[in-house]
Amino acid sequence: MIPHQPLSSPHQHGSAALDRVMIAVSIALIPAFITHFTLFGWGIITNLLITIPAALGSEALALWLRRRPILPTLADNSALVTALLLALILPPLSPWWLLVTGAVAAILFAKQIYGGLGYNPFNPAMVGFVVLLISFPIEMTSWQAPLVNSDHPLTIIAALNWVLFGELPPGILFDSMTMATPLDHLKTELSLHHTISEVRTDGTIFGVVAGASWEWINLAILAGGLWLLQQRVIRWHVPVALLGTLALISTLFYLINPEIYADPLFHLGGGGAVLGAFFIATDPVSGATSPKGRLIFGAGAGLLIYLIRVWGGFPDGVAFAVLLMNMAAPTIDHYTQPRVAGHQRGEMHR
Amino acid sequence: MSYISYRQLIADGMWHNNVAFVQILGLCPLLAVSSTAINGLGLGIATTLVLIASNLTVSVIRNWVRPEIRIPVFVMIIASFVTAIELSMSAWFYDLYRVLGIFIPLIVTNCAILGRAEAFASRNDIPHSLVDGAAMGIGFTVPLVLLGAMREITGFGTLFAQADLMFGPSAHWLTLNLFDDYGGFLLSILPPGAFIGLGLLIALKNVIDHKRAENRR
Questions:
Q1: Which of A131, A197, A339, B40 could be disulfide-bonded to A105 (CB atoms 3.0-4.6 Å)?
Q2: Where are the domains of chain B?
Q3: Chain A partners within 8 Å of B185 (Cβ)
Q4: Cα B162–B166–B171 angle (5° rounding)?
Q5: What is the per-residue pLDDT across A244-280, written as a single tens digit (0 to 9) for each?
Q6: B199 to chain A: nearest residue by CA?
Q7: Size of interface A-B (CB pairs under 8 A)
Q8: What would the pLDDT profile of A123-153 be if each residue is shown by its tens digit?
Q9: Shortest CB distance from B183 goes to which of A131, A134, A136?
Q10: If you measure CA to CA, which chain A residue comes closest to B187?
């Protein structure tokens, strides 16, 4: 057995064990879950109650089929992080089969078929999300309205009854509990040739900078992300490049015509940009690895998010942007290999 | 060199050297037309007929075609049969013809057919070439129908929908509605579903081969 001892001098041993990184990511998501629960009620909890066992279960099943040790791999908590992300990005109060399909697609098809953690070319949670988004458009656009706009908030029992059996308390229709998301609403209204200043007078959907209630969740995600940066679990390159590019290009178009193109704060604070920047595009497996490559990766994702949001067919584009950049990551890595100490720039390629 | 037994030819076409699972040829029609079992069956039968006819003709003329021009000759033969099949389908199975659309004329570009003409029919006698064409054609049809059935069941919740397009109005009883109130899993109808489905079927075939090899040992 080769000892894990660095063979020559300039190596410093990293303390970032995989399970600790994953635990840190999970902890960083806690503020977002608490904010979500306070503003939207039990929907996020029922999502978590189903995605976690579904993700861990499919991971265990795949490992058993592949005759790999089950418990050590489950203990690296990567499936847990996938489940947490899925629960956060899927509509709260999603039916159980939707959540299970998403978790199975993420773990079995995006991760284990490629050989498990470290071999997956795509971010598993994003694959699960996109599979659901293109397969079940109705369920995936039924977003719960914030509690302040809801007359009959569901109890935990009623929420579970809905999620597991599709039954609601008498007199309540599911449609009456749902509402368009801010990005979705903006897209629909703009297609009807309404201007942004007309659209944003609707205080039930739009808040101070972006979506009412949604902006607070994104703030909590931002806090978690900054904590991850401070803990050095993630590096600054991807979040800065992603959010910077998104801010830059949205400012540019906002200055050209503020009545058609939303302001940069709306783009940063609405939808999944913050979550994508700190928690998803920073995935070390499916993203680029060199510092310059990470900047390109983040900038590309930011640009694609804006393009899809403004000119694409879907209200938000974080998942598609990340998957497309995942595809580009090997090429980016190839062209941004850092200079090896002692070599001239470009010497490696010639 | 007709030393290959007919049995071996059939086993090769259906399993060991299957067009879809082993040679991975003809993917374009395989993936594009397999959204339902009946579509798959329709295209599979059309392809099989072309394969048998082209194998027969190529085998008949194999001693008179100069090797330098063999490929254009084979393509002309295949194209003629595809045109004949296309015209007969538009005459007798017009609805199915409309559903399959461009993929009927595109049979001519199916590399499996040219592949068999080049690799087998141009070097073997007529009976062997006929059997090879039939075995390869059926070996292409079965995966098409399987993949079509998988995608149809998961995507629409039905099996053999629109069977009347092929077998006439009396075949309505064939259509099965497997689930009540099924929303449909759109992904399996869309192109990614075809790739994932074919991948799973190839994996299944490999698992069966591994098990059989283990049992033999």
A1: A131
A2: 6-216
A3: 101, 135-136
A4: 65
A5: 999 999 999 999 988 888 888 888 888 889 999 999 9
A6: A113
A7: 15
A8: 999 999 999 998 888 888 888 888 777 767 7
A9: A136
A10: A135
